[in-house]
Specification:
Blueprint lengths: L7 H17 L7 E6 L3 H13 L8 E6 L8 H14 L5 E2 L15 H11 L3 E3 L4 H15 L8 E3 L7 E3 L7 H11 L13 H13 L4 H20 L1
Parallel strand pairs: 1-2, 1-4, 2-3, 4-6
Antiparallel strand pairs: 5-6
Helix pairs in contact: 1-2, 1-6, 5-7, 5-8
């Protein structure tokens, strides 16, 4: 990655990724890690921070960024070209997968079938998604408030049919504020989102509510996620 220097904000994000990775056994030595890039800032932060970590940890892993053009962040070809340039700066080749409808962008695993087939072709051990702590907490609250069910985005999970690959969310211990701080200092930009989240209004309500709670935001987000996971695994399975 050349001699580029990274900021304290970047190393903080990388450290929190390491903490989540250690707690949930996300990435092991010599793993092949496919990183799903949506076109937005958060998944770019994920890829760069995973790349930065390689400088500071005793294990090694390979990164394979992929992108499914779906139009959420604008013209498919322009977004793909922009992501390719971003990956080139990190000395990582980007694989462009088949174009798809934006309908699956906001699923628990965006474009799951395309990612699964890519994971099988590349024989990866890990598929990394860009959901952060707020995404995970908002998913829980939305599932209960909108659909009356308890649904959880697990930080790490093995899924049948994925060739043994583990789907992980390394940003599980980071808030949008942490991610934006790194994006600002590293000048990581992304196209404006043209197709908003279908639950954008409810997510804003969740954000306002959780920020009013006493204590750091990350603690509130983690409490929601951990409580939901405990209820699901201990009482509903």
């Amino acid at each position: 990655m050349g001699k580029r220097k990274f900021s304290n904000e970047t190393f903080y994000v990388a450290k929190r990724i390491g903490k989540a990775g250690h707690e949930y056994e996300m990435i092991r030595d010599k793993d092949r890690v496919m990183v799903a890039l949506s076109g937005g800032v958060t998944s770019r932060i994920l890829l760069e921070a995973l790349s930065v970590r390689l400088r500071r940890i005793p294990i090694s892993y390979e990164l394979f960024p992929v992108h499914v053009p779906d139009g959420v962040f604008g013209d498919r070809e322009e977004v793909a070209a922009d992501l390719s340039a971003f990956c080139k700066e990190l000395e990582l080749p980007l694989t462009i997968l088949e174009s798809a409808s934006p309908d699956e962008h906001y699923r628990d695993i965006p474009h799951a079938e395309l990612l699964k087939q890519a994971a099988l072709r590349q024989k990866v051990h890990v598929v990394a998604l860009g959901h952060d702590a707020f995404d995970i907490a908002a998913w829980v609250l939305s599932s209960m408030g909108r659909r009356g069910v308890l649904d959880v985005l697990h930080p790490a999970i093995l899924l049948e049919g994925w060739g043994g690959a583990k789907v992980v969310r390394p940003l599980s211990f980071l808030t949008p504020d942490h991610i934006q701080a790194m994006a600002d200092i590293e000048e990581i930009r992304a196209p404006k989102r043209l197709i908003p989240h279908p639950n954008a209004d409810f997510r804003q309500v969740c954000d306002t509510f959780l920020r009013k709670k006493r204590g750091p935001l990350i603690e509130q987000l983690r409490n929601v996620a951990i409580s939901a996971t405990t209820i699901q695994t201990d009482y509903l399975v």
